Amino acid sequence: MRVFHSPASARHDPDRYFRRGSIVTHPEQADRYAILREAVGRAHDVSEPGDHGLEPILCVHDAGYITFLRETWDRRHELPGVADEVLSGHFSRPHMHRRPDGLLGLLGYHTADTSTPIRAGTWAAIHAGAQVAVETADAALEDGVAYALCRPPGHHAYADSAGGFCFLNNSGIAARRMQARMSVRTGRPARVAILDIDVHHGNGTQGIFYEAADVLTISIHADPANYFPYYAGYAEETGTGAGIGYNVNLPLPHGEGDASFHGAIEKGLARIAEYAPDALVVALGLDASEHDPIGALRVTTPGFERAAGLIASAGLPTALVQEGGYLCDALPDNLAAFLSGFEGSR
Ligand SMILES: [Zn+2]
């Protein structure tokens, strides 16, 4: 299996954020990149992506948001006192629509929480991650499967906002890329499914495609009633307009293990089979692990291998895009188990 990654991923390295009433070590650290890179380097053909520019990113994200992400660090002098990162402590609400000119206001407009500080290397890291997703999408269509080591993750990013450690929605970018390529290849509008198995609901992905019937979004995650992202991820959210019926949420009670996880994946795969897409993106969070420091489910390492086997049996061209999965001894083993499980079942 071809694997794509970029050393630029390590250039965004937040060190703290506000969680449950206190300032804690940021779980989404640059070390994740090094550990996942080491885990895939042993068994796979690893390479860096070409630069596909902004075009595939702008198929998913608003231009004004991208400009904000590119320029914020260079505008930091507008905020006296900023040292190593630019971060807002206040955020726009759904009933406050005005996009202001000032940097502090823009920060609160384009971010959902305190987990996505913008630092000197943030744009380089997230831009590289998107290029990794694009290259992987292309490779998956050639080879049948490929893996994108994207870091930071992407599935909490909406078209115009960051949040939950995420800036650019790499899974969404890969999906639109595969769709465009497959449409050219088949001569008809292609359809893509995104299966998100990260322990957190893929709210950004849901938001991006909520009105779309040509991208089916399915998320398996821990019940958000008392868990991030709180305000989305419920079973009754099925899409809107033309997208009604093309968003599926499969929340699981906290503490569930392999059997429930696999049952939800089988349910998702049944819906995907009915939809009959041309390609599949797996939003590959590994934080459903029993050992994950911020997880809420109890999936084992063999459980990830089995999950991969189930997904591989769908027989679709598949881009595996890294989402969450935080620092613990099991993290590299879970990635290796998933990739070998996928390859063993193709
Ligand atoms: Zn997650």
TrEMBL record:
InterPro entries, from UniProt? HDACs, His_deacetylse_dom, His_deacetylse_dom_sf, Ureohydrolase_dom_sf
User: What's a single GO BP term from this record?
Assistant: epigenetic regulation of gene expression
Q: Which domain of life is it from?
A: Bacteria
Which terms are listed as keywords in the entry?
Answer: Hydrolase, Metal-binding, Zinc
Please report the stretch or stretches of sequence annotated as the Histone deacetylase domain: 26-340
Question: Recorded GO terms, molecular function?
Answer: histone deacetylase activity; hydrolase activity; metal ion binding
Q: Which cofactor does it need?
A: Zn(2+)
Q: Which family does it belong to?
A: Belongs to the histone deacetylase family.
Name of the protein described by the UniProt record: Deacetylase
* Source organism per UniProt: Saliniramus fredricksonii
